[in-house]
Amino acid sequence: MSWRAWPFGKAPPAPDAPHALLADIEKQGKQYLDDVDNGKWVYPACKRASSDAGADKEQICNHTRLEAVRYLLTVPRGEFRLLAEPDSQPAILDGYLRQLPHDETVIEFTGNTMSDLAIAVIAGFNWLNHCAGLAGADRRKFSGTLNHFRRVAMSAQKWWEMKGAKERYAQLLQAQQEPPLFLYLVWADYGRLAKEIAAARRTR
Predict the structure, then answer these.
(1) What average pLDDT does the segment 1-13 reach?
(2) Based on the number of CB atoms within 10 Å of its own CB, is 50 exposed (0-12), middle (13-18) or buried (19 or more)?
(3) Sign for the pseudo-dihedral over CA of 149, 154, 155, 159
(4) Which of 18, 95, 176, 202 has the most C-beta neighbours closer than 10 Å?
């Protein structure tokens, strides 16, 4: 299974792939929101008409995923960067699994880093659910989104709890494979849902 689904150019050489992906997400996300503020794109992407700029399936998918990840980019003190740190994975996953689900896309942060990361990730999923409704996507494909990702996170937590996890992590990166880094998990699932939204939008 690929955790990554990298959309921006070619993957960089290991072992810097997680940090490079995160830097690319941050750059692309901020640029996209700046462009939206300047009127370059119809926002949200799922509402674009065929005559609008960026109305092709690939652009709608990429932009919808960036819309979801923007919540993480606003976590105080730029602590979303912990998503790419192997030492932080057990705490991030534990914080996510402890966080009660919510249905908000307008959120307030608590000042607790792990809670704030979890709140932001859930808000991103809620945004994608909202966009699915706007785009007329098949609701069956979005049913139980948070429960699905919770199961993914639980599997990743078990992986990181096993002896030698950091060594396996380094070996996978060296082999240009993707370990269950929380960054990869979130980015891949956001991408999966954004793809469904883009496909639904293009068929309307």
Answers:
(1) 47
(2) exposed
(3) positive
(4) 18
